[in-house]
Amino acid sequence: MINKIKRHSLPIGILVIISILVHHVWFFNLSPITYGDWMVDYLEKINEYFSLPDIWTSDSGFGGLNFGISFWPFIFIAGALAKLNINIYLIERLVFLWPIALLLPIFMYFLSYYILRSKMAAFISALVFEFNTYLIILKGGHLTLLMAITFTPVFLLFFIKTLNEKKLIYALIASFFGFVISFYEFRIFYLVVWLAFFYTVYHLIIIERIKNFKQLIKLGFFSAIPVVLVILLNLYFLLGIYGARVLTSNSVFNQPLFGAWYIKLTKVMAILHFGWTGGEIIPWKIEPIQWQFFLVPILAFLGFLVSKKNKLIPFFTFLGLLGIFLTKQNTLPFPDIYQWLFDRVPGFNAFRESGKFLIYVSLSYAILIGAFIGWLWQKAKDKKLIAIASFVTILTALLFLWNAKPIITGELGTLFVERKIPNDYLIVNDFLSKQRDYFRTFWIPTNSRWSFRLNTMSIISSYNINHDSWQSFVADGNETYIKKYANQLFDISAIKYVIIPLEDKANDDNFFAQGKRKDFINQVNKLTYLEKINIGTKEIIIYENKDYRPHIYLTEKKETIYKNIPYTKIDYKYINPTEYKINLTNINNPIYINFSESYHPNWKIRVGDFNWFKAITDKNYFLPDKYHLENDAKLNSFLIDPKKICVSNQCIKNSDGSLNIKLTLYFTPQSYVYLGGIISLLTFVGIIGYFIFQIGKGIVRRFSLRSLSSHR
Questions:
Q1: With CB atoms 3.0 to 4.6 Å apart as the test, which of 95, 595, 651, 661 could cross-link to 636 if both were Cys?
Q2: Quick check: 662 and 589 in contact, CB under 8 A?
Q3: Where are the domains of the chain?
Q4: What DSSP letter does each residue of 554-597 carry, written as one string?
Q5: What is the pLDDT of residue 286?
Q6: Can you tell me the distance from the alpha carbon of 206 to that of 479, in angstroms, rounded to the nearest whole number?
Q7: pLDDT score for 263
Q8: Distance (Å, rounded) from C-alpha 208 to C-alpha 196?
């Protein structure tokens, strides 16, 4: 295997050098790389990632279902690296940036070489795949998506080898890469499953032309292994989402189609981003197509024409046409088909915006254009033809390499420029990180990319919360924090600090495009329930709400935002975002436990000893739902009546007749995460065990052969 790779050292070496030079900002410094939704956390937060997966997230807003739980493996890896005290910006590069820059062209190179058997063709394929404008734009902020795409060619390579050679080891390698794709971006894995299905059908009819049932079963078995194993490896999150009863009814699947207004068929056929200028991109502005991009589909079509004898070329041609047809969404021709698929095909409604289908076009064009270049060099037998082949190859390479210019120069901005954390944020984060009690920070108008957050120190964006949990509070158009009940609302929401961030244009971190910063400051200065404090910042302004309440506390009456209900602190212990241990002492009368996380019916209370597995098997394991209430702050309250709950449960009676009660506050879908995690772990151990067995078997075989030869 190593000797086979060595034969490709020159083209791979050139690809690596090109990629490093293009992405020089990623390789030659350790500055934070961040833009848009791509945030970089601090060491304290990344340390929290070294834990089991949680189906509830509590580090932003008032908590909610963690639909990003599928990301857990790479988050766990980042947490493990943080525990080793590795620089956080080096972690960002190890987990995302460097694999994208280096592995994306290499994996595409080997897939293309396996299909085309030409180093030059494979080299061009890698350039086409890495430097088309679709993937370049993804590099500017959608790194989880791009990491999944990075591993797609190598998955497809081993999937094709699995069906060709019917070897279990290839199926398991494909499974491993399929799992990597799935935990970086499960929607890309969904597309890869369809890709594997289409190829299986093509292999069945065109490649092997299977005619008997036994061959069909064998082919079906090997094609199903990678998909089945990846599903098993993902049960930790699939069962968790199932347990929350939101597997298909959630925000990912319940959104209307989007993007038809900027989709142009000519640009789709050229794999051209709608706003591509060759420099800085103005958000949502449609740019005219530059003439050179018309060459892209022409080169792909020529690849199809000259390489039809290669049995795999028609498949990649079909893949490209399918990708173009789906990416055009509900525009002409046949505008209703995408909507029909969106409404009726399970999982398809995760693609409200059709751009992700460009992965099919990117794969297709990379192979087809590489096939054309390979054919040219195969025909080049004299100096004249060699000159033509060289000219076309260089022209093709430059056509795609030119797209990298704005990355090199930094014109494209986004994740291709260095960032520097303003000193004010370092002061704020140092101030917050030294505090150990639970509280939230409230950012007006929204939080910065440099905001500090932990599971026990959640950040709230005023803008986001007004469009979510507090939407009903701002129906009149006025900000929540100026309402008459704002003081009480902030108290029971555990909001300790209100922060107004910087107008940081240098880092694309400016939140005051729709209003002047001084207007927000003047408005908050008038609030009597907040006290402005000085922690040493020059521009960031911080206010303290001294009456904020704990995360979990007791009241004798149901909590409300309309009057001040006296409260009592209680002894509780945070285990993880889905579990808390509570000890109540000297309880005589009914009381309310108030828990300042978003109300969800799956938050339950168990009296006495707790076992996560019984949360699945015992329907009467928790207090009845009638005791779980949503207070008018949209948070959780639980009625605890000692006379009713201590009849058949474990409570300790004191000499004065009062009761000590041990409780567990638990988010029940987490039990499905644990159950699925056990199955996923066993599957992973089985795959690794098989790899080790095969490696050991190979070593023993080589040792035996050497012994036999020495005896001879």
A1: 595
A2: no
A3: 151-247+668-712, 552-667
A4: EESS---SSS---EEE-EEEEEETTEEEEEEEEE-S-EEEEEEE
A5: 86
A6: 64
A7: 87
A8: 16
Partners of residue 458 on adjacent β-strands: 440
- 500 membership: H or E segment, kind and range: strand 495-500
Nearest by Cα to 550 from 487, 597, 598, 601: 597
Please, are residues 481 and 463 in contact by the beta-carbon 8 Å criterion?
no
Half-sphere exposure of 592 (CA within 13 A, CB side): 20
Q: pTM of the predicted model, to two decimals?
A: 0.93
Phi-psi region at 249: left, alpha or beta (left = phi > 0; alpha = psi -120 to 50): beta
Are 155 and 148 a contacting pair, CB within 8 Å? no
Contact (Cβ atoms closer than 8 angstroms) between residue 20 and residue 114: no
- 445 Cβ contact list (under 8 Å, min separation 6): 461, 462, 463, 511, 512, 514, 515, 520
Instruction: Enter the tokens of residue 710.
Output: 């020495």
- CA of 143: how far to CAs of 54, 89, 308, 598, 698, in Å? 22, 15, 35, 29, 37
Residues paired with 461 in a beta bridge = 443
DSSP 602: T
Q: What is the b/e burial string over 376-400, where b = at least 16 CB atoms within 10 angstroms of the residue's CB?
A: bbbebeeeeeeeebeebbeebbebb
What gap in Å lies between CA 143 and CA 35, rounded to an integer? 11
Q: What pLDDT score was predicted for residue 706?
A: 66
C-alpha span between 166 and 357 (Å, rounded): 29
Question: Average pLDDT of each block of 10 consecutive residues along the chain (712 residues)?
Answer: 78 97 96 90 95 96 94 97 95 96 97 96 98 94 94 98 95 97 96 97 92 89 96 95 73 70 88 89 85 94 92 96 93 88 91 92 98 93 84 96 96 93 96 94 94 95 91 86 93 96 87 81 94 96 96 95 94 96 94 96 94 93 95 95 80 89 96 97 95 84 67 56
Take residue 606 and report the two structure tokens written for it: 């168990």
- Cα of 636 vs its chain's centroid, Å: 29
